[in-house]
Structure prediction request, 256 residues.
Amino acid sequence: MLKLILADNQAIFRAGMAKVLAVEDEIRIVAQAQTPEQMLMAVEKFRPGILIVAGDFHPDFATVMQAANTSDARVIVLAENGASTARFLNAGAIGIVFRNIPSASLVECVRKVSRGEGWAQNSGASNEPSETDMVGMRVRDRLTPKELRIVALIVQGYKNKEIATQLGTTEQVIKNYLRNVYDKIGVSDRLELALFTIHHRILMEAATASQENPAPKSPAAQRAAAAREAAPAAIAAARSAAAPGFGSKEETHTRP
Prediction:
């Protein structure tokens, strides 16, 4: 049985990798780490055969390699799409995959690295859009700017309530938006939505850009936001007016 640890701070992507790998009979995921500290503890405790770790997960990659070597774990680096990977290979990583890796290729990489063979995914940089990119482009064009922002937050692991807070609306409104997004893309839940987005570069880029350049709020949303900001001051003023002040009748005493 091949013991494996996943270390990535993108919760939904990590869950997606776990879903892909967990169906393989010879692979057992013994831990998933959200922080560098959790990863180092898990590597020491479980002594896995494979450690899959995001390239920017730990500020000092040498520390990751030291922990892996101490536990005889082989390292596969999960790199950002288009990122340079030479430093990871030079440091001793045996496998390199990108976030757009197909499921079958991820399984192939794990199996080869477990046998001590090197495996590096081709970054696939090309000026011509692939068939996958064309699908992402068509889906992107169906989504509104607000739907793209919601998709971006879903990929980052935000829950509906947190998304509602970010966008200044209610949780029920977010649920309604998500139902529309699911129908437009053809997925059934947020995990499938996140994985679809991650594997379609053009859609992922559009979702990311929507956060950097959010659409302007509607007048109603602006009024609601202003009201929320003004509420604490209004409450404080009301309390101050209601409270007895110095020299008020409540504090005036007469001698008997």
In short: The chain has a mean pLDDT of 82. Strands lie at 2-7, 27-33, 50-54, 74-79, 95-98, 119-120. DSSP finds twelve helices and six strands in the chain. The longest strand covers residues 27-33.
